[in-house]
Amino acid sequence: xxxxxxxxxxxxxxxxxxxxxxxxxxxxxxxxxxxxxxxxxxxxxxxxxxxxxxxxxxxxxxxxxxxxxxxxxxxxxxxxxxxxxxxxxxxxxxxxxxxxxxxxxxxxxxxxxxxxxxxxxxxxxxxxxxxxxxxxxxxxxxxxxxxxxxxxxxxxxxxxxxxxxxxxxxxxxxxxxxxxxxxxxxxxxxxxxxxxxxxxxxxxxxxxxxxxxxxxxxxxxxxxxxxxxxxxxxxxxxxxxxxxxxxxxxxxxxxxxxxxxxxxxxxxxxxxxxxxxxxxxxxxxxxxxxxxxxxxxxxxxxxxxxxxxxxxxxxxxxxxxxxxxxxxxxxxxxxxxxxxxxxxxxxxxxxxxxxxxxxxxxxxxxxxxxxxxxxxxxxxxxxxxxxxxxxxxxxxxxxxxxxxxxxxxxxxxxxxxxxxxxxxxxxxxxxxxxxxxxxxxxxxxxxxxxxxxxxxxxxxxxxxxxxxxxxxxxxxxxxxxxxxxxxxxxxxxxxxxxxxxxxxxxxxxxxxxxxxxxxxxxxxxxxxxxxxxxxxxxxxxxx
Length: 543
Known about the structure:
This protein is an all-alpha fold. The protein has helices at about 1-15, 20-25, 35-55, 60-65, 70-80, 85-100, 105-110, 115-125, 130-145, 155-170, 180-195, 195-200, 220-240, 260-270, 270-290, 300-320, 325-350, 355, 360-375, 380-400, 410-420, 425-435, 445-460, 465-480, 485-490, 495-510, 520-540. The chain starts with a helix and ends with a helix.
């Protein structure tokens, strides 16, 4: 718990204090010998949870792999030559999901002396041999390893297997199961309360006394839901990584390597984009229901009714479950929602307009989600801040690719986030999306408003330089045509204001204000300034 809550500084302190030596010894084959099974299980599970925190926060993967710790953890996950409790397998899978990322040493081991483990991983992923959560973890591990040069020759096969595994897990719809979960828990609790007292306390020679606590009536149901939701979350993360960026250039040397374009094509062909769309809709409905804004949201009737059902179910869960368990469900729901959004951003970023298809219904939900998130945004927690950042990024991409049409309420929201966004990406993507909105015929009446907002952000003294770049590029794109928006250019005094801004921009670039940015960024700023001056000169000569 100390490592989980303490973050990077605590984890580094533990590593510097040589916590790895005693931790590694726990994973030896003789560990737990002589202990009662439940004690050994708790020891291994907690040790793996600690190791997972350390691996996430510290650069120790190479050390752990070379010392054989990662191999032993893999044996615990796959249960090779030993009976391993399911909880230990899952904890080991979580460690490997992190530790396998680009791990060339582990790749060599799996393709060498641990070929049997490799076969088990493939079965776990493809046939869900050890259950859905372990299957989704296996898919994550295999994808991570497929990015190494050692896997280049079989990357085609690995990616195909991973996609098949994801396809099975993403059929699960945990958010739509919340009403059923709430009803089942309520019935279980009521049933347990009606049980005769003598039956609750019955003892006899056929009943062995135990020191373990009796499971709560709701416990199995909550754990099953959380496990399925975690499996979907891990699968969505893997899908997001699959469609995030092209592979390592070193892999291109292999003739059997699958290209990034082919991966995107496979994802679409196998129906993963449709499954993701279904998950997004479920998450949108759940967000409406859990934030108690179902009735006030401007959404279609069916979504509003479903959100109301979620709201009632969520209220029931909060009243019947212990607070920590209700929070567990709520946090996992939020976490899955963020992963789905991030995955959608990656898809929208890389897929063409024709591949994306009709995004109108999706865009309505994205717009609605942004409106909901912006209520109380100023004081909102980190989850809402991240949500707004990703939603604005998706909006920018959809508008840039001409997949959807903006409206005036979206323009106003983007103009507000361009100034008051709480992250750099939120401000930059809002600026780009706002400029892209101005190019739509439906927004011609709001063109002066859009151009004025972009000019105002340029003229503010405290505007970050990355926002300055985005606004300058946006204005050049918006007013580059000669035969349109002539009246707006005059009304805004665009040429005069940009000429004045260019001088201020140049002074900024020569000051100590940009001392911390790298040479590539400096070159980019100089290029933007040059383009701005060329634009001002051209427009001055062709009024």
